[in-house]
Write a structure and sequence with these properties.
This protein has a single domain, classed as Rossmann fold, CATH 3.40.50. It is built from ten helices and seven strands. Helix 4 runs antiparallel to helix 10.
Length: about 250
């Protein structure tokens, strides 16, 4: 009887681990699940048809974006160079953002151009308060423990050490200062796989030229190209097609 109970517990634990892995590799929380069937979100809807080994390979080798909030998504001062600006009070802070920036980030994540992780002092508030209001998809945190501003550099170094060949794109209005410090204090590090995008104070946030630069890098990344081909081939087999450039999004 005890062996039977142990067997049942083992199965339940294995199932729980599978659910956790599936969540990390492409599922959405409840408030985004209803968007699975809309146009432009089919890569997630049909993610269950993709071999788990291919997903893991992309997670280990595909581009990684470390994403900040203030001065990147949230425009601070300056003159936002967008014609679709919206604003609201979120978590007691005034947030000014572009719907184009949001839809582009969603596209990169949904259509397997990159894995996006929050690296921001907003911490869980970015997931729980900011993202739902902006219609931004659910991204995991780069650091699960509470992150302060000075924690960003060691967190970046952890990912760089873990994925030395992975393209890492750091979107932070202070990432240029961070990178200068890293180069000065860790001159032996090979940072050729790192792309630093640091929006200027004049614009206060991401601009079209910066989005275009990141997009060009993502579209030409070998791991991403290979994985999107797998997705495309798999969906063709089940009579579906995905437009990887579609930024459509609607809650």
């Amino acid at each position: 009887m005890k062996l039977t109970n142990l067997y049942i517990v083992s199965i339940l634990l294995a199932y729980f681990q599978f659910l956790c892995l599936s969540y990390k590799l492409g599922s959405l929380p409840k408030y985004h699940q209803k968007s699975r069937s809309i146009k432009g979100d089919k890569s997630l809807f049909f993610a269950s048809h993709i071999d788990i080994k291919d997903k893991i390979d992309f997670m280990n080798n595909g581009p990684l974006i470390l994403l900040d909030v203030d001065g990147v998504i949230n425009t601070l001062g300056g003159t936002p160079p967008w014609d679709d600006i919206e604003s609201d009070i979120i978590n007691k802070f005034k947030i000014v953002w572009s719907k184009k920036v949001v839809s582009t980030l969603n596209k990169w994540s949904r259509h397997s151009f990159a894995e996006i992780l929050w690296l921001t002092t907003w911490n869980h508030n970015a997931q729980l308060h900011l993202a739902p209001r902006l219609n931004l998809d659910y991204f995991m945190l780069a650091r699960n423990t509470y992150l302060y501003h000075y924690d960003k550099i060691p967190t970046f170094l952890e990912y760089h050490k873990k994925f030395p060949k992975r393209k890492i794109i750091w979107l932070d209005d202070d990432s240029d200062k961070f990178m200068d410090w890293i180069k000065e204090n860790y001159p032996e590090l090979d940072l050729s796989n790192v792309v630093n995008i640091s929006p200027t104070k004049q614009t206060g946030g991401l601009v079209k030229e910066e989005l275009d630069k990141v997009e060009e890098i993502l579209k030409n990344d070998p791991a991403g190209i290979a994985y999107r081909k797998i997705i495309d081939d798999t969906m063709k087999k089940i009579g579906e097609k995905i437009d990887f450039d579609d930024t459509h999004y609607q809650i």
